[in-house]
Each structure stands twice: as C-alpha cells, then as structure tokens.
Design a protein that fits this description.
Radius of gyration: 20 Å
Number of domains: 2
Largest sheet: 4 strands, antiparallel
Structural class: alpha+beta
Order of helices and strands: EEEEEEHHHH
CATH topology of the largest domain: Sufe protein. Chain: A
Distance between the termini: 34 Å
Oligomer: single chain
Strand content: 25-35%
Low-confidence stretches: none
Number of helices: 4
Number of strands: 6
Shape: globular
Helix content: 10-25%
CATH architecture of the largest domain: Alpha-Beta Complex
Length: 180
Amino acid sequence: MPLSSPNVARQRLHVRNVTYEGYQRDDGLFDIEARVLDVKDRDCTLLSGVRRAGEPIHDMRVRVTIDRGFIVRAIEVVTDGMPYPGSCDQANEAYAALVGANLMKGFRRALQDTVGGVAGCTHITELLMFLPTAAVQTFASLQREDSGAHKPYQLDRCHALETSGEAVRRYYPKWYRGAA
C-alpha cells in the first residue's frame, strides 16, 4: 500500500538511494555490496563548487567480504562523489580495521568505536550499520529459516517474531514460548 497522497503542494529537493546486494562467491565466501547515492533536483552551490541537478553530492560504495560465520574477511571502500574532494575520501582506508569483526556479535559497537565520528565518514559508517541485516537476508535464501537445532536468528528481534506471539506459534511452532 502506498503512502497517502499529500494534501499540500510540494516540490522534491533531494533523493537518497541506498542499496545492498548480496553475492555468493565461488570460493565459499560472500560479498555484501552497499551504495549510498545523494542527488539534488536542482543545482546546488556547495563551498567546494556547484553541483548540477542530478550530479551526485555523495556516491559511496562498500564491499564487505564475509564467511558463513559472519566474520568480516575483507572490506573495500570507494568514494566517487563527495562534497569535499580530497578530504572525504581520506577516511576510506580506516575501514580496513573492521576486518575480523563479526557482523552478528558487537559489529555496530565496533563500527562506532573504530570509525565513528571523525575517524571515518558519517555516510559510509551509516551505510555499514545496516550490513548485518543485509547479510542475514543474503543467507536467508540458502536454507530454510527453521532448519537446524538453534533458534533462528530473527526470533525475538522484532515485534512480529516475538517467541510468545502468534506469528511464531504459526510459523515456528518449535520455538513458540507463549500460552499453550
């Protein structure tokens, strides 16, 4: 269902596109590629110069290689569009410090501790915040959600999948913890 129609005239000024794509590699590892792209619908004057309508203010990409245990094995950061050329992209190499981190165990904390604030780029760090979810979605197509002896990762991580709720009773009866 779409959002309701606005009841006031308006003009779009900005578009931010964020994408995540998950790949299975032939060597048994996985790549998660992420991109953030910011564009304006009209010319925009920045301190570093004019950006024409449709020309990216930000165009940043990340490829994170992980194993089945969600361990970061490699990371590559590329900044093609930036408001401060020669400065914004200087933080790209700092993200290599995340190699060895586990996306499911303290990754967001490690991200903030390692490249948060002035140690990294706000937009790239923000992009990486959602990497764990993208990785889970990438792996979801490779096995049934309820296979295995361990509780599926997604249970008790959102309102719909609380183990005492109706969705878990119906779709994950093995893990249901509500009233009989």
